[in-house]
Design brief:
By secondary structure, the protein is mostly helical. It has two domains: 41 residues, no CATH class; 51 residues, Orthogonal Bundle (Arc Repressor Mutant, subunit A). 44% of the residues lie in helices and 0% in strands. The longest helix is centred in the C-terminal third of the chain and has 21 residues. The radius of gyration is 19 Å and the shape is extended.
């Protein structure tokens, strides 16, 4: 369905999205604020995958190094999650963890 959707021109995709939004949220959804048309398949680094897949043995070799802070640099994202790796829930949890670390640093300064 996604491939077929992105074969349509951008205006047709926009109209299809608006139709669905109106169906779910009512006529108020017809008053758009902004519309951005994007497909992750065109992203250089991810090429459309929703989560990075690590190579064989990387979990034991690198363990949780992606989620480890480096000085004042903190990482958050689905790959940094301790639970729900690869899902939005994991990304949210990793973001909350990074935010907590930053708040602790700010309180200690």
């Amino acid at each position: 369905k996604a491939r077929k959707f992105f074969q349509m021109d951008e205006d047709s995709r926009k109209q299809a999205v608006k139709k669905q939004l109106i169906q779910y949220f009512g006529e108020e959804a017809n008053q758009e604020i902004n519309y951005v048309d994007h497909t992750m398949n065109e992203e250089t680094w991810s090429e459309g995958c929703y989560a990075g897949i690590r190579e064989v043995n990387s979990w034991t070799k690198y363990q949780n190094s992606y989620s480890q802070s480096e000085g004042r640099l903190h990482f958050a994202g689905t790959e940094a999650a301790t639970r729900w790796h690869g899902y939005i829930e994991g990304a949210v949890r990793a973001g909350e963890t990074a935010a907590e670390k930053i708040l602790q640093e700010l309180n200690n300064d």
